[in-house]
Amino acid sequence: MAQDDLFKKCGKRGMDRLLKRDGDRYRDHAHIRRLNELFDDAENALMQSLNVREPLSVVCHGDWHRETLLFRYDEHRRPFDATAIDFSTLHYESPALDISSFLYMSTTQRVREAHWDDLLDTYCAALAASVPPGVRVPCRAEIDAEMADAAINGIAKASFALPFMLRDRSDTLDSLATSDDPMHYFLALGGDMATECLADIVMHLADMGYTDAGRDGHSDLADNTDSKYGSST
């Protein structure tokens, strides 16, 4: 299975479900049309999302979701600290790659609708607090621009990983190796729950307008030194 072909079909798995359940709203939606273009040109879209964008690029984890975190709990079984594991896919790219990957694979649509702004604001504030004074950190508007350019990468990772994460644990994936039609097997993996989750992610990308991957005219963030949470001065 070619990876770009798999992404195209997995992306349209969520797209088809979204149009089935809310076609009147999304069938002619401008960002849904743009997402279809990105799915049809998956290889180029994903390569564009990996472009290094200075001065905001960071060392990304590369596989950032709840199953690559170990949590520490208090006596009431509430998590109060976490540490990352599995650093085999580290790379230097836009912070939006890890942000979109983590949020799309680790939150529900209800959480995204209620707390998306809070989550991104918290990221910006925590990043500013973690570096020495004078270090350039992105403001929220810059993170939004990065998400518009690179969040397509997050849906790609979610399209591959969520069906595995949501599959029946009795499925040891032996059938994938022996299947005469591995694409069909994979597109059914995780069942209806996975399909609904992918539809929710497609809906969120469209609602947020995160469909700028591959377009010319990305702003030169190096010229913008103002930041809500910090600055280069």
From TrEMBL:
Extract the InterPro entries matched here: CHK_kinase-like (IPR015897), EcKL (IPR004119), Kinase-like_dom_sf (IPR011009)
**Domain of life, per lineage:** Eukaryota
User: Sorted alphabetically, which PANTHER family does this protein's record hold?
Assistant: JUVENILE HORMONE-INDUCIBLE PROTEIN 26, PROTEIN KINASE-LIKE DOMAIN-CONTAINING
Name the species this protein comes from.
Schizaphis graminum (Green bug aphid)
One Pfam family hit: EcKL
Q: Please give the name of this protein.
A: CHK kinase-like domain-containing protein
Domain CHK kinase-like, by residue range, is: 1-133
